[in-house]
Please model this.
Amino acid sequence: MLRRVLYIDLGNEDAWVEERQDLFDQWMGGTGVGIKLLMEECPEGVDPLSPKAPIIFCIGPLNGMFPVATKMVATFKSPLTGELGESYAGGRLPLAARFAGHEAIVIRGAAERPSYISINNSDVKIKDATSIWGVEAQTAGMILREHEPGIGRRSIIRIGPAGENLVRYAGVVVDTYRHLGRLGLGAVFGSKKLKAMVISGTEHVEIPDHKRYREVYNKLYQTTVQTDVMEKYHDIGTSVNINVLNWLKGLPTKNFQSSSFPEAENISGEILADKYLFRRLSCAGCPIGCIHIAQLKSAFSTHHEFEVRKVSYDYEPIYSLGSNLGVSSAEGLLQLIDACERLGLDVMSAGVVLAWATEAYERDMITPQETLGVPLQWNNVKSYMNALEYIVRPPNEFYAALAKGVDYASAKYGGADFAMALGGNEVSGYHTGPASIVGQIVGVRHSHLDNAGYSIDQKAAKKQLSPEQMVDEIINEDNSRGVFNSLVGCLFARGVYTSENIIDALGAVGIEKTKDDLDSLGKRIFDEKYRFKTREGFDLSKVRVPKRFYETVSTLGKVDPQTVDEMLRLYRKKRGWL
Amino acid sequence: MSYSIRRIDACRVGRRGADLGMADSSEAKVISERVSVAGQETKPKPKKRRRLKVAHPERCIGCLGCMFACSRVHTGNVSLRDSAIKIQTQGGIEGDFRVVVCRGCNDPPCVRACPVGALERKPDGSVVFHEELCTGCGQCQDACLIGAISLGRGSKPIKCMHCGACVAFCPHGVLTFEEVPS
Model:
């Protein structure tokens, strides 16, 4: 197995490789190695946008080796929350890193002028990117393709204008359609004058026991394609949940004022699949193909002249830029998603920020002078398009505040009760009940994917779960996902990778682990992340819960603040923090 | 049911003890026959040659499962470079995929181009590669217009054997086998 860490110093234009066998032995890879390197590299209390704040990329031992082990993790200090930043993406990124021979990449310092990193096997160059600074993310990718080697097996990750202008929730676009979206990695790139990174390589990985490897591969492949574990992602995709959560009263609508959207059907996965879907794609190494691409064809004159855009969609962008903004047409929704893609914004945070602004505008907390005459109203797609452009290139204080996230904007203009963030991160698209809220509060990166509280709520809707049982499930997911995210697998495939299968897969590539080893690794990774969080000022007892969560009916009925408090108390107790 | 991923029945194929997941039993049978022919140097009853066909390139989702299968079965390791089949992009994943693999020509230019006879056309039309004769000159690569031959380690050509491993691991029916008209 490869055990190399590539260090790149943008300030000194230097790069070198270190063998870090111990690091990988102890922390596996992926998020485990990622948090350990972040602890090593990130000075305490550093400004996340200063040259001293590092960016760390890690893959894990299963990437490229087995089906659906298709993610790479980035760890950094988040400019949005001021504590742990962690984001995952697939596409061809993990595979390209694997065949370039780098399991981890550490980026230090800042470049003097706009630059991009080109990695081709052990050849690492820092190149001038002045001529593409300011260029939209998609176009920047097209241009770099012409200049870099490795066609068909490389990965090109880049920021758009949002990252360059330090929007606190700017993302990094990966190979078009995939994203290191959350918690502001794009702004960290921007602060380093780093426009893009291109990785490719031609290495191969020696397998110790070919026969055993093929046996395990075939078993996992069959589980992936034969069983129903993955069917949801294959057919309609994640957006199948729009109708489902709407029926369950869990679909946040108009800034969580309601949990069902009368016009949800218009923007549902079913309608998108029937009318707009023209292609599905997969991350390299995954036979499912869950990336759904819609064709958005719009006339720009009355003479049958059309613009055609290819827009990838999923559940979360439909929630954040659809139901949560009251957008009731698929065309409008796709336009907004496309705008975020071009500008390089995290769709989830962008949607939540706009939803807060719309409600604040409705309540006259924000004036038309502040919005520069843009009427921020539900379903007003044109206004939202204008607002997104203004957020990325803020012409005044108001839009500059929006660019810093909903916590910042509501602290300045009021309306904290309906500023939908937990732990500083704009929330995901679930109003399913207390487990979703608590899960995002305690989660290491305040994401629904830390522990899938939304899924625990849905389980509780079928079979009564006590607050204690919910907390137990959250803790179990917190820990086990730390292991899975060290491999690094796609969370959609978590059903395929049972502990037993993980042990088999690791064994087949020469890493012998027991169930106890994995359990203790999960716990250690979680603890290490909390060490970073608390070091950077996170305090679980001070997390603000917007009142709106308690006002709107959820899948499990109205959520009682006491239930949330009780679950947080139990969580601390079980974590040994009381 | 809209779920179009093929059912895979694991079966055992003789070559290098490889375990292949086969798309269906008829394909599995063809592969084991071909493999045993190559392995035992004996000729069973005459049969038609079968070769890979890129039947539906527009259905490709870019998973690269075929490339991994090829290197896994033929080298035992994990590699994209060592695969005889290549999935290429044209304008990134926003564009269409190109599936590049040997067409199994009846009058193979790669064989004619080889100055030392390392590529040999068998009476049934299949092409075998004699590695020990190969000098790594690369003329076979130049002779193939579609770019189906790439040079691997030691500049030796990576030549598709039409074994069908890639067919078995294509989840969208992009690849099939076809019988070669005599």
User: Anything to note?
Assistant: Chain A touches chain B through 49 residues (CB under 8 Å).
